[in-house]
């Protein structure tokens, strides 16, 4: 398997793990944001949707598209601090795995850009 294909496979695994971690933490948002909300230019669409919606309908969907179309991957990712802040009020045990997955995603994209 080429190094490029392996990177997309690794990212696909992390995206699936993120989805499962969100579901386990009960933060898997089922209400899709409007097209207007998705058009936000603010980081994390903070002005138009919840962070849970952004994770599911923006981040995960963009990564899926990149994987399917083998588009260039971001050179870095720093979502862990936002995840920590967004879920601060939840029980730590409930979001521990979600934090670990987001840390892994941050490290993977930063490491991948250095290859």
UniProtKB/TrEMBL annotation:
<dbReference type="GO" id="GO:0044010">
    <property type="term" value="P:single-species biofilm formation"/>
</dbReference>
<feature type="domain" description="YqcC-like">
    <location>
        <begin position="11"/>
        <end position="107"/>
    </location>
</feature>
<dbReference type="InterPro" id="IPR036814">
    <property type="entry name" value="YqcC-like_sf"/>
</dbReference>
<dbReference type="InterPro" id="IPR023376">
    <property type="entry name" value="YqcC-like_dom"/>
</dbReference>
<dbReference type="Pfam" id="PF04287">
    <property type="entry name" value="DUF446"/>
</dbReference>
<protein>
    <recommendedName>
        <fullName>YqcC-like domain-containing protein</fullName>
    </recommendedName>
</protein>
<dbReference type="InterPro" id="IPR007384">
    <property type="entry name" value="UCP006257"/>
</dbReference>
């Amino acid at each position: 398997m080429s190094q490029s294909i392996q990177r997309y496979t690794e990212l696909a695994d992390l995206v699936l793990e993120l989805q499962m971690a969100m579901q386990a933490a009960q933060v898997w948002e089922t209400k899709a944001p409007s097209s207007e909300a998705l058009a936000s230019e603010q980081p994390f669409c903070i002005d138009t949707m919840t962070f849970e919606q952004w994770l599911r309908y923006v981040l995960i969907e963009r990564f899926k598209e990149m994987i399917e179309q083998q588009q260039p991957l971001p050179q870095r990712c720093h979502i862990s601090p936002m995840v920590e802040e967004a879920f601060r009020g939840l029980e730590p045990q409930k979001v521990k795995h979600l934090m670990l997955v987001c840390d892994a995603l941050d490290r993977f994209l930063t490491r991948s850009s250095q290859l």
